[in-house]
Amino acid sequence: MRTLADLSIDRSSRLTLQDQLARQIRDLIQSGALAPGEALPSTRDLAAELEVSRNTAIYAYDRLVSEGYLDATPRSGVEVSSTIALTRHARRQPAVRAPATPATTPGDHPPLRPPRPFRPCQPDIGLFPLLTWNRLRSRVLRQEGRNILHYQADCIAGLPALRENVATYLRDHRGVRCDWQQVVITSGSQQALFLLSMLLLGSRDQVYMEDPGYVEARLACLNAGARIVPGAIDEQGLLPPTPAAGRIALVYTTPSRQFPTGVSLSLPRRLALIDFAGRTKCWIVEDDYDSELRYGARPLPCLQSLDNSGRVIYAGTFSKLLFPSLRLGYVVMPEPLLEGFIALKHLNDDHLPLLDQATLALFLESGAFYSHVRRCRREYAARQKLFLDLFARADLPVTLGNADGGMNVVAFLPAGADDDAWSRRLAEAGFDVPALSHYAMASTAASTPPGLVFGFTAFPAELLRSAFQRMLPVLRRAALELPHRAAQPARKPRKR
User: Fold this and answer.
1) Domain that holds residue 68
2) Number of domains in the chain
3) Where are the alpha helices (DSSP H) in 404-446?
4) Residue 277 within any structural domain of the chain
5) Are the beta carbons of 196 and 285 closer than 8 angstroms?
6) What is the tens place of the pLDDT at every residue in 472-489?
7) Distance from C-alpha of 380 to C-alpha of 120, rounded to nearest angstrom
8) Contact call for residues 178 and 332 (beta carbons, < 8 A)
9) CATH number for the domain that contains residue 57
């Protein structure tokens, strides 16, 4: 078993020295090599031992304190948090059901258009380095020629070069534990959720889902015939299932940044979920849709990185970071499920566009992706601050929710307010601001705290200012004229 004596620094690594140190200490805690309550060396001693600056050690310790792995007590030093109680369950080969025949329901498909203020979960495509993307796309065509325009029977799971680059990114920056063969490229995270529901769920299986939460994930599970058990959200994120919930086949969660409320799942809750999955042999789907966009601190390690029982399925997307119409996402499958998932995907499509996949692979490999993410993080952080400042000066009867990152902010309305009526008023005035109750289940919508979900990332500073000033009279009239919740007809689910 590795110990603190095995800590080392690789100065040729793409990871910063601080990230390397934090990751190694975190791994020691997760593996049990460092026990709860165990003292760690001082930052001065650790820095001297590793021949790094003291600031490097301070940063690593501070990061692990913020993540809940370490406790720091003035004049007493740093020790492993007493809340850490990692459990380990033997990996079990699951019995994978034959996929059910998908039910198809035609839906409305509005024409393509720029997003209206303040539509949530929209990146600013003006920040995307289109010239770089086109240059890399041209390189792919020069290197591969017309071969890339043919069907490729060995690319059902995705172009190998892209799968390898995605795996490297996830290991280095999100702490995901995987081989590249476990990465399957999907048409956004939505296809992954649909295929997973077909693979893992049958009629009347129970799925524990965040409420309010991502509506399309709920619909995917309902399409497979499953029953939804609503999971409440508080300031620590999703409450773990209780025995009263009955037999749970799957848990769906957005732990890095819960959608739509924006809270992060606390470390004790993460460990409780993993323990629950290990004991009950249910699956956890971790939808990590925008974890890169954390402004006040470093991104939290993913739930999958804590899982020693192989029960967490990790899903993500590039649409939120690059541009929405790219429609490329990924899922990291536990090995026992991999073959069944790929077979099911083959029924859904032969493979996704290879030219886009090859271009994205080069975009990652060249470092352009990482530069773009850093630029977006800086710009979106500034826009969020501006948006919060505008609200603070507006003197409105709202309370803003968690705002340490992400693409959205929830403005909670006074108790009893009809958030649907507020949303409709805003829509009539040219704004796209969904009500928080739109994301709740029908049985819980009335008890969901009223709120409005504002997106800010797609809109440059001047547009944010001008749109907010145009919106302000609408909000003030709504506060005066629509103070109470009223019974409304059933609402169509909204996309994230």
Assistant:
1) 12-80
2) 1
3) 419-428
4) no
5) yes
6) 999 999 888 755 444 443
7) 13
8) yes
9) 1.10.10.10
